[in-house]
Design goal:
- This protein is an alpha/beta fold.
- The chain folds into 2 domains: 3-137, no CATH class; 141-321, no CATH class.
- Helices cover 51% and strands 13% of the residues.
- The chain is built from 12 helices and 8 strands.
- The protein has helices spanning 3-22, 28-40, 43-55, 61-68, 79-96, 102-110, 115-137, 144-158, 160-167, 171-188, 231-247, 313-321; strands at 193-195, 206-208, 216-223, 252-259, 264-267, 278-281, 284-292, 308-311.
- The strands form 2 sheets. It has a 6-stranded mixed sheet, sandwiched between helices. The chain has a two-stranded parallel sheet with strand order 5-8.
- A hairpin with a 2-residue loop joins β6 and β7 (284-292).
- α1 runs antiparallel to α2 and α11 packs across α12 (313-321).
- The longest helix is centred in the middle third of the chain and has 23 residues, at 115-137.
- The radius of gyration is 22 Å and the shape is elongated.
- The two termini are 37 Å apart.
- The model is unreliable at 196-200 and 324-334 (pLDDT under 50).
Length: 334
């Protein structure tokens, strides 16, 4: 990632956190709301957040936040859970500060009877780990969702014709060519990866930094019903990404889907603030990135009603139930 861009985001984040650290008890809630408005306007920060929350999905941290709001003294056990707990608590506090008694919080954590001391507890236990995590991960592998967002826009706005030509050759070769385009882009952004490492269950398109502790697993698929690459083909891609995540013991994976048809592809997964739709099962979160490179014959306002292919949580959950703990899987679709 470009250093100047990261430096700008990091400087803005530092400046806003400094304001929170110097705020009075009365100022803190309103400044926290302003902080999250700015946070949500940054695709990079949102991308790191989405990746973080996916990594800690097994801990049910929203339930922990509810317990903290009932004045139970809880802390994260790891860097990731501490950062995610800090984010979720502060987000909840920014929206419901009037419902929260600072004195009760101070008493539960340190037996303090002063509101300023209680606010310092919030800064130490929630703001500090949240901020430090984001500051440290702005320019590493965990910004992958931000990169994929920029890749999607790059393809759709500037490279759709070139990518269509790659795909319209021999279908299998075309899919590999599109995957190489993704590799090239991510390599240019500073993501280190190894192409096609073998796993127990197959070969994912790439695993970023395979020898490191934070590996990025991604697979690519075409969505092209007239070429027999419709819903079942996308489901097979999800299943593959899920198995790779299981075999490589990673909490997240990414399915990049190139859409070459006028039909729409809808993921009816639970609504969220994430940059892309996702589905979590067995503590593995798969993100779906649809790159629309179709050449439409008419503008959107004149296309009329198009056929829609809907992928539901039930479709996705069924596939994961077919995955054996040993790493094998039953036949389900092609």
């Amino acid at each position: 990632m470009e250093d100047k861009f990261v430096q700008t985001i990091r400087y803005k984040l530092q400046k806003r956190v400094r304001r929170l650290n110097s705020a009075s008890v009365q100022q803190f809630p309103s400044l926290l709301k302003i902080f999250f408005q700015s946070f949500d306007n940054s695709p990079l920060l949102r991308g790191v957040r989405d990746e973080l929350l996916a990594r800690v999905a097994s801990h049910d941290l929203p339930a922990s936040v509810e317990r903290i709001f009932k004045y139970e003294a809880l802390l994260g056990a790891t860097e990731e859970t501490s950062a995610a707990l800090g984010y979720l608590f502060l987000l909840r506090y920014s929206a419901n500060s009037e419902e929260f008694n600072l004195l009760n919080l101070g008493w539960s954590y340190q037996r303090s009877a002063d509101q300023e001391q209680a606010l310092d507890i919030i800064r130490t236990n929630f703001l500090e780990p949240f901020y430090e995590y984001f500051d440290e991960h702005l320019d590493d592998q965990q910004a992958i969702l931000y990169f994929l967002r920029r890749y999607k826009h790059r393809c759709e706005w500037f490279h759709a014709e070139r990518l269509r030509q790659l795909a319209e050759g021999e279908t299998q070769k075309g899919e590999k060519s599109l995957a190489r385009d993704l590799y090239e882009y991510l390599h240019g952004q500073g993501i280190d990866f190894h192409i096609e490492p073998h796993t127990v269950s197959g070969i994912p398109d790439f695993v970023a930094d395979q020898v490191g502790s934070d590996r990025v697993i991604a697979d690519t698929k075409l969505f092209w019903p007239e070429k027999s690459k419709a819903k079942s083909y996308i489901l097979s891609g999800f299943h593959q990404a899920y198995i790779y995540a299981c075999n490589l013991n990673e909490p997240t994976a990414y399915l990049v889907i190139y859409k070459l048809c006028s039909e729409s592809l809808n993921f009816l997964t639970p609504a969220s603030t994430s940059l892309f739709p996702s589905f979590t099962v067995n503590n593995k979160t798969i993100f779906f990135v649809v790159v629309d490179i179709c050449e439409y014959e008419a503008p959107a306002s004149k296309r009329g009603t198009m056929r829609s292919y809907d992928i539901t949580p039930e479709d996705l959950r069924l596939l994961t139930e077919l995955h054996h703990p040993s790493g094998g899987c039953k036949s389900f679709c092609s």
